[in-house]
Amino acid sequence: MTSKILQETTKLSNGVLMPVFGLGVWKSSNAEAAQSVQVAIKNGYRMIDTAKQYGNEAGVGYGIQQALVDNHLNRKDLFITTKIFNGDQGYLSTLKNFDEQLKRLRLTYVDLLLIHWPVDGKYLDTWTALEKLYHEGKVRAIGVSNFDEKNLADIENLHRLMPQVNQMEFNPLVQEEHLLNKMNGLGIAMEAWSPLGGGEALNDGTIKAIADKHGKTPAQTILRFDYQMGVITIPKSAHEERIIANAAIDDFALSEDEMKQIQAMNKEKHTIWHQDFAWHKGSEETGVKDNVSHWDDTEEYLQKKVQY
After folding, report:
1. Which residues fall within 8 angstroms of residue 283, CB to CB, at 6 or more apart?
2. Among positive and negative, which fits the CA dihedral 42, 45, 46, 50?
3. pLDDT reported for residue 282
4. How far apart are CA 273 and CA 279, in angstroms?
5. Which residue, 45, 159, 231, 272, has fewest beta-carbon neighbours within 10 Å?
6. CB 221 within 8 A of CB 207
7. Given 54, 62, 227, 301, the catalytic residue
C-alpha cells in the first residue's frame, strides 16, 4: 500500500503545492537515475530532484517520460526540481543553460528551479534570471540551495520575489535551527539534502534505540524526524525495496521526548560549505572545483526512445 506521506503536499508562498517527500538522484548514473525514477513513480512517488551538476538529467528525463507512459499519468501529476550549475551562474548564462537543461529533461517546464550555491558576485544576477523564467512560466516555483541568512537577506533587499524554497543539508547532525526560524518568518520552505546524515547518524545509539522501540529502521526514524520538523525530504536510493521503505513512515510518530533526544544530536557542522569552494577561496589548488559529473551513458539516454 502506498504511503500516505507520498500524497501529502505543502503550500509554497506562491500557492504552488509541493510534495513533502520525494526521490533524490545525486551520484546516480543516467541508467541508475532512470531506473530509480521509474521505480519510485510506480510506487507512488510524485517528486523527483536532480541538478545539472549530477550529470544525470538525461536519465531522469527518460525515466520521467517512461514512467508517465507506464503508469498512465500526466506531466502535471509530477513535481520536478533541477538546479542551476555553479559554473553557469550569471543572468544571461543562466537563461541560456536552463533551456539546455529542459531539453535534457524532455520537459517544457520544471516545477521548482533552484540556485545550487550562492556563488560569490553572481547569485543576485542568477536570481534575477530565475525571476524572469518564473514570470515566463518556464518554472512554477523558484528557490535557492545552501543559502544562509546573509544570502537570503541580499535577495530580500532586492525588494522583489523571495525564494519559495531553500534546500539545505538537514539531518540530525545538521539541523539549521537559526536559519529554519528565519525561513519560517519569511515564508520559505526548508528542503533537506542529505536527509539521513550518512553513517554517523544512521549508526548513532540514540537513533538505533528509538528505531528499535518503534520497530523501524534507523533510516525510517531519521526521515520521520525530518518530516515532523516540517522539512521536505528527498532521500536517494537505487533499490526498489529501500525506495519503498524510505516512504513507509506514515504509520508511527516520534514522541516529544524522542524528538528532543534527536534534536540534541545537532552539531551544525556542514559536510561541505561555501568556504570549501574554489570560487570562494580564490584558489583552484586548495578549493573544491565545480564540475558536472560525467557518465559514459549520457548520450545513450539523450537518444533513448520511450517505449509505448
Report:
1. none
2. negative
3. 81
4. 12
5. 159
6. yes
7. 54
| φ/ψ (deg, to 5) at 193 | -100, 155
Q: How many CB atoms lie within 10 A of CB 102?
A: 19
C-alpha cell at 56: 544525470
Distance of CA 285 to the CA centre of its chain: 29
pLDDT one-digit tens code per residue, 19-64: 999 999 999 999 999 999 999 999 999 999 999 999 999 999 999 9
> What pLDDT digit, counting tens, does each position of 140-168 carry?
999 999 999 999 999 999 878 999 999 99
Give a three-class secondary structure readout of 257-287.
HHHHHHHCCCCCCCCCCHHHEHHHHCCCCCC
Contact predicate 153/118, CB 8 Å = no
Q: Is 301 noted as a catalytic residue in this protein?
A: no
Tell me the sheet residues that pair with 225.
Answer: none
Query: What's the mean pLDDT when you consider all of the chain?
Result: 96
- Quote the pLDDT of residue 160: 81
pLDDT in tens, 191-229: 999 999 999 999 999 999 999 999 999 999 999 999 999
Residue matched to cell numbers 501529476:
77
Beta strands in the chain (DSSP E): 9-11, 17-19, 23-24, 47-49, 79-84, 110-115, 139-145, 165-169, 189-193, 232-233
Cell numbers at 107, concatenated: 520537459
- Identity of the residue numbered 202: L
Which three cell numbers mark 240? Answer: 526498489
Residue 54 has which C-alpha cell? 549530477
| Structure confidence at residue 159 (pLDDT) | 79
Nearest residue to 154 via CA among 121, 181, 131, 180:
121
Label residue 2 by pLDDT band (50, 70, 90). confident
pTM: 0.97
What SS3 state is found at 174?
strand
d(CA 170, CA 192): 5
Place of cell 540530525: 172
